[in-house]
Amino acid sequence: MAQTDSQLIETFLTRGIEHVYPSKEIVKTWFLKGEPLTMYLGIDPTGPTLHLGHAIILRKMRHFQDMGHKIILLIGDFTGLIGDPTDKSATRVRQTKDQVFENAKLYKEQAAKIIRFDGDNPAELRYNSSWLAKLTFEELVELAAHFTVQQMLERDMFDKRLQEGRPIYLHEFFYPLMQGYDSVAMDVDGEIGGNDQIFNMLAGRTLLKEIKQKEKFVIGMKLLVDPTGKKMGKSEGNMITFKDSADEMFGKIMGWTDGMILPGFELLTSVSLEEIEVIRQDLENGKNPREVKAELARYVVSFFFDNHEAQTASDRFDKIFQKHEIPQDIQTLFGGGLVIELLEQAGFASSKSDARRLIKEQAVQIDGVVVSDIGAVIEPAQNGTILQKGKRFFVRIMP
């Protein structure tokens, strides 16, 4: 029997959740029956390591597992060959089988930091090539008959590409079809993912209902984004991976904008919603956001490491930050933007090419964190973000 505590179920279906299909009320009635349900999370191996965005959903998966339900971590080794077009303004570069295999090698080991693969009710690890690679062309045509081109074109990124005259390749339409078939092949009760995956997850709901006459719930979780709506990622220079050191994790979180503090507490910690409301009020009443952000950073680092590592990383960050001896009368720029442009505006670089060179030489920092991405963007914190060149040149970037 799975847990049927009403408040526990309410918390599961509310905290960090953007959408529940068919509805939160209906899904709650399924949970209250106490029958163990099966929910899966699919991850395409597009990189060699999991990142903080995965951790948010894996934490929710662990909650579901602890409630007595079954969870499946599905590695999209076949869908990874196609490439998910979600949120992409251009076609993804397709990966080879060798690249996909290499990327997926450590996923179970990394996911095991959060979900359990042993003991009672262990998580199951599966690969969707087990069924997708065996589909015949006749079966693929039969699956495709469940969807229309109009349905596919409803996706924002496809519509935008059409408007801009960018190509949409036929194989990209296959992606939601393939992800949808995963639900049929595994005969699951539910699927969870980021709210940017809702279209794909609902495709699975459609196929499961039409092929097996079975209802499937879909949970779309909130994404941890900056105030402009951008997800953390390589292009923003703030992606936190499971392979990062405690110091790297701490420093990257300290580089987040103030607007990411409260969502970070909701999505990445077990701090109660009541406590988070107190934090919100403290910030509104003038508490230094840097102190609150450091508290959040310690929570996250301790989750991946331990309390000692978290405090050590915090102390080390403070020492490094203080050693910079930032002058009180440094120049100020307003508005944020691309780091290469801000370096030029501040007079730290003679041109954008010079700014790129500085970044490649690791001579540029944002709030004490080395910038490694040429396309990095600064969205200034409320009390300002420090952009630094070398050891002696500082500029405060204000909103």
From TrEMBL:
Keywords: Aminoacyl-tRNA synthetase, ATP-binding, Ligase, Nucleotide-binding, Protein biosynthesis, RNA-binding. GO terms for molecular function: ATP binding; RNA binding; tyrosine-tRNA ligase activity. It catalyses: tRNA(Tyr) + L-tyrosine + ATP = L-tyrosyl-tRNA(Tyr) + AMP + diphosphate + H(+). Its EC number is 6.1.1.1. It is an enzyme of class 6 (ligase). PROSITE patterns: AA_TRNA_LIGASE_I, S4. It holds the Pfam family tRNA-synt_1b. Residues 342-375 form the RNA-binding S4 domain. This is Tyrosine--tRNA ligase.
